[in-house]
From TrEMBL:
It comes from the Eukaryota. The lineage of its organism: Eukaryota, Fungi, Dikarya, Basidiomycota, Agaricomycotina. Gene3D superfamilies: Jelly Rolls. It comes from Hermanssonia centrifuga. SUPFAM superfamilies: cAMP-binding domain-like (SSF51206). Residues 26-124 form the Cyclic nucleotide-binding domain. This is Cyclic nucleotide-binding domain-containing protein. InterPro entries: cNMP-bd_dom, cNMP-bd_dom_sf, RmlC-like_jellyroll.
Amino acid sequence: MTGGSSTGANDTYLSGLDNEVEILFFPAGSVLAKAGERNTGLFYVIEGFLDILLPEPDHTPAFEKHAAPKDRKDRSPKPLFTVKPGGIAGYLSSLCNTASYVDIKAKTDTYVGFLPSHALDRLLEKRPIVLLTLAKRLISLLSPLDTL
């Protein structure tokens, strides 16, 4: 077996993805995905930082709807965490095939590798082990239950 023949297995493993991953630039303050959007995809941070924000629910009490704008509480999104270079954003909506629960916003000028959800779906059909790998990585990022 030569070195070239051993990499052939990897080529077929990821075949079709070579034209799917896009390298994108987002200036600071850009919104990559909004809560409620479906089928966004995975964002791999190459350089820069992404903020993951939980938008405030729009449950405005009736008495506040009639108040002057200056009297209303500031309804800015709640920061959850920051994705650093080497990290991935968009896990949950991509793995569960649901609408995003969070906003993804560029904290700084950011370069990302973007894998659209339709390409991820095709990869998961061919190689279900990828789903397990992504799920394990997501679980490793979550806080242990004993610290809640």
